[in-house]
Amino acid sequence: MKILVTGGTGFIGSHTVVELISAGHEVEILDNLSNSKESVLDAISKLTGVSPKFYKADILDKARLTEIFSGTKYDVVIHFAGLKAVAESVEQPLKYYENNVEGTINLLNAMLNTGVDNIIFSSSATVYGDPGVTAYTEDLPTGQNITSPYGKTKYMIEEILKDIAMSKPEFSATILRYFNPVGAHPSGFIGEDPNGRPNNLMPIIMKVAQGEYPELSIYGDDYPTSDGTCIRDYIHVVDLAKGHLAALQHIKPGISVYNLGSGKGTSVLEMVAAFEKASGKKLPYKIVGRRTGDLPEMHAIPEKAFRELGWKTELTIDDAMRDTINYLRALA
Ligand code: UD1
């Protein structure tokens, strides 16, 4: 298939591009490089032997989108491009609504104007807000008590996709709700390398390991969990990338929603222990107060993705830590 991947040089996008090319698909990448580096394109070429066509472009630039879509007839768009820093979204909500919601509307217009009916969209478990349970199935209500504008943009985009599907029977949107992506490609060529100060646990652990930050601050050890720290469902980015490939093979008209997670919960302290085991070094940390908006515990029930897409995670937290450390060595 001929696929346009927006955000294809980012963390999840780049791993997905590698899987798509390896499976024989023809990929083009659109990215504004706001949170990634152009050198990722070289890494993709080295890994796959293919240099995908690259558009340095912004989804806010309607004229550019029109130009790109008029040049090629895509079968599918896989849409990763978006801002994702939760704290920044609280401080600058309009930036998030503009980039994520308006940007996606521009992309959808460019698609529909050129007869491209299929989209796979990067959503997040954050759309469930605070559902009052710890094990998440796709049929839980969404949109209630979402604590950040970032999370609300994901929810709003899902709703927009549903409305288009109502108006256009041939339209197909596959909504993938990611849990917590971690790890790196086992080659060490690509991984998570955000520009600026990271917010998420794994990139912060990486900065501590590199000596850039003195220690990890663990946000609370007084939660009602086994060791008092929060529990999340961490998923290896290569497994996540393969989830997109599975989704691509099962595109059908209408809206399809899948949780992409491992189904297992891991605490922050367990993540620290796994990193220490893989690196053979102590990771300095201190316990600080809770972070506003954090839920004590959540994990995916990924059965629907297994049943309908034949996809499940194959890699473990230990694999993710090994690959992260390998990637850190390659960066150094
Ligand atoms: C966060 C967002 C979520 C978003 C996801 C991916 C919130 C409330 N949720 O999920 O909307 O989809 O990132 O971008 O922000 N932790 C520490 N110390 C740190 C950093 C994190 O203890 O320095 C803990 C957190 O309390 C949490 C766990 O590590 O328990 C994972 O945090 P993080 O990586 O930020 O992911 P989420 O909070 O699950």
Kindly describe this structure.
The longest helix has 21 residues. 40% of the residues lie in helices and 19% in strands. It is an alpha/beta fold and 332 residues long. The strands form five sheets. The chain has a seven-stranded parallel β-sheet, sandwiched between helices. It has a two-stranded parallel sheet with strand order 6-15. The model has no long low-confidence stretch (mean pLDDT 97). The chain has a domain of 210 residues: 3-Layer(aba) Sandwich (Rossmann fold), CATH 3.40.50. The protein binds uridine-diphosphate-N-acetylglucosamine. The site of uridine-diphosphate-N-acetylglucosamine (UD1) has 21 residues, from helix 7 and strand 9.
Characteristic terms for this protein:
Rossmann fold, two-stranded parallel sheet, 15 strands, alpha/beta, 11 helices, 19% strand, binds uridine-diphosphate-N-acetylglucosamine, globular, 7-stranded parallel beta sheet, 332 residues, single chain
Largest sheet: 7 strands, parallel
Using DSSP, what is the number of strands?
15
Strand content: 15-25%
Q: What strand line-up does the widest sheet have?
A: 3-2-1-4-5-7-12
- State the name of the first-level CATH class of the domain at 2-183 and 234-261: Alpha Beta
Order of helix and strand elements from N to C terminus: EHEHEHEHHEEHEEHEEEHEEHEEHH
| CATH topology tier name of the domain at 2-183 and 234-261 | Rossmann fold
Rg calculated over all Cα atoms: 19 Å
Helix content: 40-55%
Provide the low-confidence segments as ranges.
none
CATH superfamily of the domain at 2-183 and 234-261: NAD(P)-binding Rossmann-like Domain
- Mean pLDDT across all amino acids: 97
